[in-house]
Recover the amino acids of this structure.
């Protein structure tokens, strides 16, 4: 998925067990999707805290964290960390795959072919990707300043 591409529509469930449809949500403004590999891990938690603590800078975008964790894990993760962004469960990694943001290999004996890579996608109200970043190293943070700059330019 690259800048200028049409974002695929999807419906995922939030940590509050509510369906979130991308194209319906875009009617209320741009959407920032932050794919992350796993709840309760260091870099993922740091990223979501940084976004939560600076949420006003992402306005008017609606921010969603997306992982392959279950809605139950995401609910506890959000509650225990006080995140102010909705977390969406892509449990089968289908949306991550549609955004070319899914690990496609294993790490040693552990199978990780259904885990999202760390990726950031800003989608404008026409459904067009305006910012796209996928990181190969899950220990790295996305360019949050670059995302904020892109939001400001919409």
């Amino acid at each position: 998925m690259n800048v200028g591409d049409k974002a695929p529509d999807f419906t995922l469930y939030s940590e509050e067990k509510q369906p979130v449809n991308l194209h319906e949500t875009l009617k209320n403004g741009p959407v920032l999707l932050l794919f992350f590999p796993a709840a309760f891990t260091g870099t993922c938690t740091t990223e979501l805290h940084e976004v939560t603590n600076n949420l006003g800078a992402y306005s008017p975008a609606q921010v969603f964290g997306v992982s392959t964790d279950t809605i139950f894990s995401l609910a506890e993760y959000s509650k225990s960390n006080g995140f102010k962004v909705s977390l969406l469960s892509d449990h089968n990694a289908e949306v991550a795959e549609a955004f070319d943001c899914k690990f496609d290999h294993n790490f040693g004996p552990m199978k990780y072919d259904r885990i999202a890579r760390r990726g950031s996608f800003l989608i404008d109200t026409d459904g067009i990707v305006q910012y796209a970043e996928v990181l190969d190293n899950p220990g790295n943070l996305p360019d949050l300043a670059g995302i904020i700059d892109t939001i400001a330019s919409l």
